[in-house]
Specification:
By secondary structure, this protein is mostly helical. Helix content is about 80%, strand content about 0%. The chain has 18 helices and no strands. Helix 5 runs parallel beside helix 7. The longest helix is centred in the middle third of the chain and has 34 residues. It is globular, with a radius of gyration of 22 Å.
Length: about 475
Amino acid sequence: MRLAFKLTRWCVGNNEERMIQKLSIGEKVGYSLGDMAANFVFQAMLALQLDFYTHTFGLTAAQAGTLFLVVGLAVACLNPVMGVIADRTNTRWGKFRPWLLWTALPFGIIGVLTFTTPNISPAGKIIYAWTTYILLRVIYTVNNVPYASLTAVMTTDPDERTSISSYRQIAANSAGFIVASLAIPMVKFFGHGDDALGYQLTMGLLSAVSVVFFVIAFLVTKERIQPDPQQKTSLGQDLKDLFQNRPWIVLFLATLFYFMAILVRGNVMLPYFRFVAGNVDLFSWFNGFGLASLLLGVACSTAVSVRVGKRQLFIASMVLAGVFSVVLLVIPPSATVPIIGAEVLRQFSFGLSGPILWAMMGDVADYGEWKTGRRASGTVTSAVVFALWAGLALGGAIAGWLLSFYGFVSEAAVQSAHAQSGILLTASVYAGLAFFATAACLFFYPITREVNLEIANELAERRKKFAS
């Protein structure tokens, strides 16, 4: 028995050595800067935008929730379209990389405009908010779908994909750390009491850095995996293959609940500290410690997933994230240390899942190619990213609607006990349920670590044949 085990390990080791396609640290870091760039705006949408719209810009919570839902669901439909476009883009730089360069400057400009408060009538502000938010979501999609698709074509090795995703998640969550920990102090510093000016200048600085980072990501990355040159382009066949891909269906549903949970939780924590805990300055400390713990979780993710598998790690991560979300319900709002301690544990647990989701997108694209002989990385990735944005839209809308249902008044300096209870329940129980739903979906995900390696090896052999 022991001899057979060693022989199996030796064979698997040889297979892994044969299929490994190592990337340099420089390429991984450069690629990850693209996610940091996008997350300066993305994390602002998660942590600040509801509070910005209701506390600074002048929208009601219900108006902001409706904006998030309608625009979010509408623009989410653009993701599959962008995936199809990216799959059919052919340049000397590749299919996906050029989009980082083409969208860099528009992304930066629109990011600033979205967090600008114009001195116009209330009706004009509503129009302005809808226009800029639509533009932001569109440019984010045009940029992010090709960027996310790059993971699937930079290397054939599933463990290297997890490593790439770990780098990008560290970069993304570093951006989240900066936004969550420093954005409010930066708004106060730049605004000198004028939050509208503070938000505009803060997002202006972050957006300028984003433009530079997108260009760097474009310059240092390389696309190594190409579809079979004999593969015929067929949108109908791509979509048929997609809906027959069971791992994609499971990942779609898991992603929907995953990002719903993030936004339900993220959108109410600033109101929690402002109106329930009664100390908005603790928000930065809460996020600072939490995001530092999340980065540690992300850094541990690759090593743990190699041992237990992506699916198992993802499930455990979601269950623990749900548990530590619900714990907030029983912690007194004045108990600062336990609140931050629970967030540290929640964020570490959540961080373990961060790289896994993005690496799974490449694995699902491999699964589709393995089963059908056709590869459509952009279509597969964009269809999962559609679920991401649909989850964000639903999460943002649910957060806004729940606050409104519980009697939250955006202009009030003090909220009623009922409204405070709604804020607490949204941050704990409702967010926790979404995390648990994500875990439940993943029980049906069929790609184990063993299947992952089998697919990677077989596809490597196929590519050798059509390459020659």
